Amino acid sequence: MSKIFKISNKAVKSVMAEQSTSSNVNITDAVLNQSPVIKYAENVTINYTQPPSTSSSDEDDRNSMRKLMKLCISYLEIEGKLRFQGVSAKEEIPVVHPIIHEINCYDKDTVPVDERYEPKGPNELFKNKIKKEVGFQNLLDQKGKFISIVASAGSGKTVFSLRLAKAFSELQRLCIHMKLMDANYEQPLTLRQLLLENIFPGHSEEFYTACFSWMQKNTDKIVLILDGLDQAQYSLEKISPKINYNACVPVKDLVFNLCRKHFFPNSLLIITSRPHAVLYLPEPARPQVTYALGDLSLEDTEALFLAFADEDLWRKNKKSSNQMLSMCRNPLMLQMIISSNIHPSEDIGDASTPTRLFATVMENLKGSRNIRFPKTMDELVLKLQVLAFDATKNHKVVVTDEQLKDAEIDPTTVHDIIVQLHAPKRSVNCNLFEGSPTKFYFCHQTFQEHLTASYVVYGMPLEEFQDFVETSLFQEHWAVVRRFICGLLFDLESKAVSGDLQMKKEILNKYLIQQLAIISEKFMESRQKYSDDGEALRDKLFDLYACVGEGKDSSIATKAAEHFPTTLYLPQPMTLNLVPGFCFVMKHVTKQLDKLSLGSCSLDANSFHEIASVIKEMKPGQIGVMTIVDNDLQPSNIDDVIGWLKVVRDRLRMWESFIGDDGWRRDANQDERSKLQSELNNLQARLEVYVDDVTILRSQK
After folding, report:
1. Do the beta carbons of residue 81 and residue 31 sit within 8 Å?
2. What is the rounded radius of gyration, in angstroms, for the C-alpha atoms of the chain?
3. Which domain of life is it from (predicted)?
4. What is the spatial distance between Cα 431 and Cα 415, in angstroms, rounded to a whole number?
């Protein structure tokens, strides 16, 4: 049998030139991964043959295995380079890893079928199923198991799996890494053909025979990483029959038998996927352990950011918006933010909010590459807006090929839509869509949400918009889309807005302020009655503040501030994406507040500084009682506290607000207390500061 790949001579030569010092190069896979445009180039035929029944000697096996391990390492190096095609790479991509949690993947209702749309974002998906946080080393210590690694698109599953493979290779374990999207073959294959001849073509029968013989004898030394189960066009939902090593069967049967450990029983098998595809695995072929990839740590976020851009841009982003800093913790979003700050849209200005960011990204998309869509990218984007809205309305993130056809989009075109992200140190291309020939999803859920909002603002008829805002928009399901809609309609001060767009802005303004008034009043009632609804109402309130902040319209913020509760507790924890909207509304609050609690919010130094910068501009004595206990402040934040002392008229509670050198929370130290007391001595009002359970600092008044 033979497998036909369509590969351009130019692409083949470029990879061969790069690896001219070694013949151990997976030319086919390397070139296939460079760009979808090669699908229409010249043909290169790779012949597959059934493995001979002859055996090889142990020495032959070992020699061939050493050569295979070199081939595996060469393959990983090429794949790593193709992930980041730097035009002016000044330094290596740093080794950073997302936060990893072991989870209970198969508990009831853990993973929604077809990844039901969740507006709270992918990190909320497993929050009630987390068993423990683990480190990268925990995965390297695993042996003989079947492991799945799940994460949302854009979280870095493929890069993470390549780094795992490289680490295993450095431990002298034979690690074969295969992208399942590249193994969507219709014709039957043997296991040897799938794992060896497919990934490392062009070698002798003796080589393949010796390698496969060694693998069967040394299953405990093998690591198989199958990347992207969700991108395979076949389904593993049905149980496949048990087969032997030499059986020639469809690829799905080979993968299923690998999952059941019928092949290489003592090997370590790792499959990466978006969550829904793993959930579909029938019980006999389910992984023994499942890990979920989350965001990068803040330290890793900074390291990766600086690998793409300069320190000045990092400082600007860090200073201007905690919301953007939070988004940077996703590797794909980080690259989009850098690209959009360097090449902002003229209509948007600086990309300082998610709405402005994605508006710029969509402008960049219109100039990106697509080799098969017959019309302009503008026309395609309009179709994608309708498609995204219909999917979001129906609680879906997975889109079928039939739905694409109904939207008059040829499914064969979507994999050729490449968003080009440019940065000072390197450039990266990413596909707008991921998935198989029958199921698709946007490379990041936020693309779907922004396109949905764009349809509501620019494509939905006015009468339908009025009904949508009145009956649907303020439901939890539309939370993220709602922020984008507010950003698109309210952040229009520099544009001439007229006609339906102006009327939509007025309608949205009216209902947003109504919601703020209703939720604020209900929240205050819940505080007086000690109702259990208080936290849910507070969360809705902060989500509405985020909508106001997304629009950057001061007149709307002023109206929102009129309904600001006189007693308010911040969410626990106060996530980074909520800080900018809260601060934007707080700037316009003029009423007297009885109590404002920032306690137990896990605020870091940057978030606290952003909030403190607003509070210190308020009127003297405007806040009765302030609480900042149980946070993660740094010593420098004592200046923020000192700056707002004049604003507090009665009490400030601040024990265990700082992070000590040992990582544990601590009270203000002696130096910090001296600074506080010195400022209190200058106050013209009576104020008490509780710095621990028993110690109270007082003003001299």
Report:
1. no
2. 28
3. Eukaryota
4. 6
Between 29 and 472, the more confident residue is 472
- Count other Cβ atoms within 10 Å, centred on residue 170: 11
Pairwise CA distance, residues 289 & 308, whole Å = 34
Contacts of 582 (CB under 8 A, 6+ apart): 542, 545, 546, 549, 570, 574, 611
**Regarding predicted confidence, which is higher, 57 or 84?**
57
Side chain identity at residue 491, one-letter code: D
Q: Which pair of tokens denotes residue 182?
A: 């590249």
Would you tell me how many other CB atoms lie within 10 Å of the CB of residue 652? 22
Q: What is the dihedral of CA 557, 560, 565, 571, to 10 degrees?
A: -70
Q: Quick one: CA torsion of 512, 517, 519, 522, rounded to 10 degrees?
A: -160
pLDDT attached to residue 533: 86
Distance of CA 633 to the CA centre of its chain: 26
220-275 pLDDT, tens digit per residue, is 999 999 998 887 877 787 888 899 999 999 999 999 999 999 999 999 999 998 88
Residue 20: inside a domain, yes or no?
no
- Asked whether residue 94 falls in the same domain as residue 243, the answer is yes
Closest CA to 79 of 122, 117, 25, 130: 25
DSSP for 545-568, written as a single string: HHHHHHHT-HHHHHHHHHT--SEE
Same domain membership, residue 637 and residue 532: no
Q: Report if residue 9 sits inside a domain.
A: no
Q: Do 281 and 409 belong together in one domain?
A: no
Res 368: pLDDT:
63
Q: Determine the pLDDT at residue 597.
A: 95
Backbone angles phi, psi at 149, to 5 degrees: -120, 115
Q: Are 197 and 208 in contact (CB under 8 A)?
A: yes
28-42, 51-65, 653-667: range with highest mean pLDDT: 653-667
Kindly report which listed range (216-230, 325-339, 604-618) carries the lowest average pLDDT score: 325-339
**Pair 646, 513 in one domain:** no
How far apart, in whole angstroms, are the C-alpha atoms of residue 72 and residue 269? 16
Confidence of residue 492 (pLDDT cuts 50, 70, 90): low
What is the mean pLDDT of the segment spanning 320-329?
A: 77
Q: Is the peptide bond before 284 cis (omega within 30 degrees of 0)?
A: no
Q: Which domain holds residue 627?
A: 592-701
Q: Which of 277, 296, 315 is the last residue of a domain?
A: 296
Q: Any idea which of 22-31, 257-266, 317-326 has the lowest mean pLDDT?
A: 22-31
Q: Give pTM, 2 decimals.
A: 0.80
Residue 642: its pLDDT value, please? 95
Contact at 8 Å (CB) between 208 and 61? Answer: no
Which of 360-364, 440-444, 593-597 comes out lowest in average pLDDT?
A: 360-364
Work out how many domains the chain is built from and give that number.
4
Neighbours of 555 (CB within 10 A): 12
Task: Establish if 376 belongs to a structural domain.
Answer: yes
User: Hey, what are 402's tokens?
Assistant: 């039939």
Which 3 state secondary structure label does DSSP give 177?
A: strand
Of all helices (H) and strands (E), which one includes residue 150?
strand 146-150
442 and 303, same structural domain?
Answer: yes
Q: How confident is the model at residue 373 (pLDDT cuts 50, 70, 90)?
A: low
SS3 letters across 68-136: HHHHHHHHHHHHHHHHCCCCCCCCCCCCCCEEEEEECCCCCCCCCCCCCCCCCCHHHCCCCCEEEEECH
